[in-house]
Amino acid sequence: MHRTIFRLEPRAEADDPGWTRAPSHGVVIVRADSAADARIVASEGETDFLETPAKPGDGVSTRFASAFRDDKLYHVVEDESGRHAAAGPRGILEGLTRPDVIRR
């Protein structure tokens, strides 16, 4: 299946209070179906409270709080470098080397 390669780049300054939710991961490159899907793909690479013993509550996900979903913290651009094939599964191709970023 043909998808698009997207680059998620930090938009906010390092001292922006929005980064208190989660640290910046720097540039992350993903294969996704759309720019909106690229945000979802990147956020799925982060650890969710539901995947840890430190759950905030039964059935409560923290995926919605990902910095990748905040357009003030990250912007999404199509990556036209040709370094990655568009054909292939949705997923993270580069970046997000520290997925365990939950602030406790």
Textual characterization of the structure:
The protein is mainly β and 104 residues long. It has one domain (4-94). 10% of the residues lie in helices and 20% in strands. The protein has a 4-stranded antiparallel sheet with strand order 3-1-2-4. The longest helix has 10 residues, at 35-44. The mean pLDDT is 81.
Strand composition percent: 15-25%
Largest sheet: 4 strands, antiparallel
Q: Give the helix proportion (percent range).
A: under 10%
Structural class: mainly beta
Distance between the termini: 39 Å
How do you describe this structure in short?
By secondary structure, the chain is mainly beta.
List the helices and strands and how they pair.
Blueprint: E1 4-10, E2 28-32, H1 35-44, E3 74-78, E4 91-94
Antiparallel strand pairs: 1-2, 1-3, 2-4
Descriptive labels:
single chain; 104 residues; four-stranded antiparallel sheet; mainly beta; elongated
